[in-house]
Amino acid sequence: MLIRPETLSDESEIQRVTIMAFAAHSHTNHTEAEIVRALRADGDLTLSLVSEMKDGVAGHVAFSPVAIDGRHADWFGLGPLSVRPDRQRQGIGSALVARGLEHFRARGADGCVVLGDPGFYGRFGFVSDGALRYGSVPMRFIQAIAFDGDTPSGELRYARAFDIAGP
Description:
The protein is α+β, with helices and mostly antiparallel strands. Helices cover 25% and strands 29% of the residues.
């Protein structure tokens, strides 16, 4: 497995993988592929990594800037994270997340946030301490990892592309 930054030729495969990854999930409104496309179009796709295998792109993760309480510090949002259904539970998603977090630590970012399963993201150091809010999302799913200093508190705001998902 090779984890690398996306290239222009990966865009259609990333879209396909993202659609497939979320197709069977009822907790989503299936806008993830459109969010990735909009992040790219808006220039907000800070880091986009793919997992390439012999049979093509098996996974993708996007990172984009976030604001906390209206301040744009050096914090980033993780997601969407997508792995083809036939390649799930093989460590691909974990490898993509780990590589992305390594990238942001190395560049001196302040931290990263994610909305997701605490059981999965907790193993990377993400915690929900109640400092962040995101609309009506239950607090346990709003998680952060601070690379430098403390996690700020307040309302989390993702890039404009996430407005596609609605409330």
